[in-house]
Amino acid sequence: MRFQIQTDSDIPASRQLLDQIRFAIASRQYPPGHRLPSTRQLAMITGLHRNTISKIYQQLEEDGLVESYAGSGIYVKAQGHESKNSFNSPLLSQYPELGKLICQNLDELLGHELTLSQIRELLLAEIDWRLRCSAKVLITIPHTDLGAGELMLKELEQSLNIPVELVPLEDLSAVLAQTKSATVVTSRYFINVAEAIATPFSIRVIPIDIYDYSQELALVKQLPTDSHLGIVSVSPGIIKVAEVLIHSLRGEDILVMSAHIQDTEKMRILVRTSQTIISDRSSHNIVKRLIHESQGDLIRLPQIICSPSYIGDKSIQLLRRELGLGNKNLASE
Fold first, then answer.
1. Contact (Cβ atoms closer than 8 angstroms) between residue 33 and residue 78
2. Does the N terminus or the C terminus of the chain have fewer Cβ atoms within 10 A?
């Protein structure tokens, strides 16, 4: 709907706009649940003062055509059969756009000649399946790199707030044989192997993307030639990937030393010789403790860079959605 105001008309500009909005609602150009333009937007379009537009919206609300939600906006109000059943839900009152989404999906399913009873059966089956899958979440990583699995375990437990179990990839088949339902999570490095194991048990596998380390790699690019860089992690796999990426960026321009946190002697050498140290969160406190213990041997304290996470944010949100946990904002309400 394009609103136009004739300034030289005998009809007041406010009445022109009011009637145009009413027509847009009556003709379903603005269907129930549609969010009306803000007063600022309409002021820019029509040239009317925002106070005038606010009065028009107030009149539309008094007429029962629209309803306002604090912090969200003005929405076309559902009428008659449109306002029955779930539209009276407090959750939909808080998130009015969800009502429109539900109706659109329901109408689409009805368009496939399904009955409401059949749609209800399908939806309940899907919801029940997701609830059962979310009851048990298994992280699987090869036994040789359980350190990466430990990072994933800590981050998922914190992000999902549900029980999460770490299972070596070599033991996954035996564990799934004793499991009625679950969701298996793994890195994309191992997705094909995990799916081959889980498919016979009708268990779904969700791959997660790891953090891109863009900030850390940008720092590596800026290091002066002949800098001494230390890499510390609980995961041998992360260390190997980091060494390859850093070498591809700088070649022999900088000296790189890496250490697993369980290799105490190598860790002490790394702390004494590195000017910059990049670590994961699980290694950060150990690096700080070793630096404190070695202060007497250090000419200058190394700069410590702690990677904020191992799993990418988008993967966390995808996993929450697939497990039926919603997004963080909605789940925390």
1. yes
2. C
Count of Cβ atoms closer than 10 Å to residue 135 Cβ: 15
Long-range pairs of 46-52 with CB within 8 A, sequence gap ≥ 24? 46/3, 46/4, 46/5, 46/13, 46/17, 47/5, 47/7, 48/5, 48/13, 48/14, 48/17, 52/13, 52/14
Domain ranges within the chain, ordered by starting residue: 13-110, 132-210+314-331, 214-306
Fold for domain 13-110? Arc Repressor Mutant, subunit A (1.10.10)
Helix (H) or strand (E) holding 183: strand 183-187
Domain 132-210+314-331: which CATH number of 3.40.50.2300, 3.40.50.150, 3.40.50.1860, 3.40.50.720: 3.40.50.2300
Give per-residue pLDDT as tens, 235-288: 998 899 899 999 999 999 999 999 999 999 999 999 999 999 999 988 999 999
Give 38's contacts (C-beta < 8 A, 6+ positions apart): 73
- Comparing CA positions, the residue from 206, 88, 78, 84 lying closest to residue 140 is 206
Which CB contacts under 8 angstroms, 24+ apart, belong to 202-209? 203/176, 203/179, 204/133, 206/318, 206/319, 206/322, 208/152, 208/311, 208/312, 208/315, 208/316, 208/318, 208/319, 209/311, 209/312, 209/314, 209/315
At residue 82, the pLDDT reads: 56
Taking residues 284-302, report their average pLDDT: 91
- The mean pLDDT of 197-203, rounded to a whole number, is 90
